[in-house]
Amino acid sequence: MGMDKRTIKIIVAVVSVVLVLGIILGVLLAIFLPYRYVELEVWPRSEEYNHYEPLIHFRAGDPGSWHVWYKRINEFLRDYETTVPEEPPRAPCSIHRHDQRLPVPSCERALNMWAPCNADNFYGYAAGKPCVFLRLNHIHYWVPEPYNVSKPMEIPPEMPNNIKQFMQQRPAHHYGDYVWVSCNGEFQSDEENVGPIQYIPANLPPGFPTNRLTTADRIPYSARNLPDQIHGPLVAVFFENPRRGVVINVECRIWTRDIIYRSSSRVGHARFELYIQ
Question: Quick one: residue 268, left, alpha or beta (phi over 0 = left, psi -120 to 50 = alpha)?
Answer without folding.
Answer: left
